[in-house]
Write a structure and sequence with these properties.
Belongs to the Gfo/Idh/MocA family. Residues 6-125 form the Gfo/Idh/MocA-like oxidoreductase N-terminal domain. It comes from Cucumis melo var. makuwa (Oriental melon). The protein has 360 residues and is of the alpha/beta class. Helices cover 35% and strands 27% of the residues. The strands form three sheets. Strands 7, 8, 9, 10, 11, 12, 13, 14, 17 and 18 form a ten-stranded mixed β-sheet that branches. Strand 15 and strand 16 (290-291) form a beta hairpin. It starts with 5 loop residues before the first strand and ends with a strand.
């Protein structure tokens, strides 16, 4: 039997909504039914610019999308400062919630969003697309192979891109009233998630922000870094920045193996992604090379990773809608842990790079 088609509404016409609207179109079990913006003109222009079907309803307010009884789920790409209000309202209107990251300004806000989702029986998922790439599952197999990888000892993650002058002056991610977490909330979210992924979502005991963050004149983070420490001796570091060349690297080092990834957030090409591994590495006899050499693993995919995300989310919504299933708790749990670490990093930065113990 063919999948039930889940009907999406989008509230907000952010650039990222262009990518997710395409993903909704590509996912076999989803369709875009409505777009809402702060004005009918803005919503109409967004629909026209992105070639939406004439069947997509166009609304001049966010409320109108949430009030549409035909909408099953909403994608919310609004500025982070608006997430609490609109995510809670979406849940109260019984709309399943795909929420752009960072999901909230702090974990207290996110807990209110989660409470609304739980009270209304709606599925929550954040918009961290790389989690749904088939490559990610293959990497997990390696990371949790006791023989090939062993025990995790260290992770290093970097996400940077060189923003232009217009971005640094006008983008919502550099405005304290819209996205006050800056590069930490935008790029740092991905770094933190990659570290937690490698650590099987075990929270660190403490975090210590690295000195010399770069802030703009309004106090928003443009570049920063952090060290994370676990009780069992695992360590991790990350660097996130709007001021350096495009880099998306993760290195995870175990007692027996190492995983390298150079495009972890957005693969170099849509239809395949790769990572490299090495196990039980050593030198040749004369120390002139490595043996064995690293292995390159190529993972093809029929859909871009954002369409895999929409498909997975839509499948969970269908199970709730048709079969009375309970919302999947895996995704909000992972989201909350990411937000907890992000909050601790921010507290360390604000406190002058002091160690911050993780709350739960």
């Amino acid at each position: 039997m063919a999948d039930t088609i889940i009907r999406f509404g989008i509230i907000g016409a952010a650039d990222i909504a262009r990518k997710v609207s395409r993903a909704i179109a590509l996912a076999p079990n989803a369709t875009l039914s409505a777009i809402g913006s702060r004005s009918l003109e803005k919503a109409s222009k967004f629909a026209s610019d992105n070639g939406f079907s004439p069947h997509v309803k166009i609304y001049g307010s966010y409320e109108a999308v949430l009030d549409d009884p035909e909408i099953d789920a909403v994608y919310v790409p609004l500025p982070t400062s608006l997430h609490l209000r609109w995510a809670v309202l979406a849940a109260e209107k019984k709309k399943h919630l795909l929420l752009e990251k960072p999901v909230a300004l702090n974990v207290a806000e996110f807990d209110k969003i989660l409470e609304a989702c739980e009270a209304n029986g709606v599925q929550f998922m954040d918009g961290t697309m790389w989690m749904h790439n088939p490559r990610t599952a293959k990497m997990k197999e390696f990371l949790f192979d006791a023989d090939k990888f062993g025990q995790l000892k260290a992770v290093n993650s970097v996400f940077s891109f060189a923003a232009d002058a217009d971005f640094l002056a006008n983008d919502i991610r550099v405005k304290p009233d819209l996205d006050g977490l800056g590069a930490l909330g935008d790029a740092g979210w991905y770094c933190i998630r990659s570290i937690l992924f490698a650590a099987n979502y075990e929270l660190p005991k403490r975090v210590i922000a690295l000195p010399n963050p770069v802030l703009n004149e309004l106090g928003v983070i443009l570049s920063c870094g952090c060290s994370l420490l676990w009780e069992d001796g695992k360590v991790a570091t990350f660097h996130c920045s709007f001021l350096s060349n495009l880099t998306m690297d993760v290195t995870a080092i175990g007692t027996n193996g190492t995983l390298h990834l150079n495009d972890f957030i957005i693969p170099y090409v849509e239809k395949e992604a790769y990572f490299s591994t090495c196990s039980k590495s050593g030198f040749t006899e004369l120390v002139t090379g490595w043996q064995p050499l690293p292995s390159k693993h190529i993972v093809p995919t029929d859909l871009p990773q954002e369409a895999h995300m929409v498909r997975e989310f839509s499948h969970l919504v269908k199970e709730i809608k048709l079969n009375g299933a309970k919302p999947e708790e895996k995704w909000p749990t992972i989201t909350r842990k990411t937000q907890l670490v992000l909050d601790a990093v921010k507290a360390s930065l604000d406190g002058g790079f002091v160690p911050v113990e993780l709350g739960h």
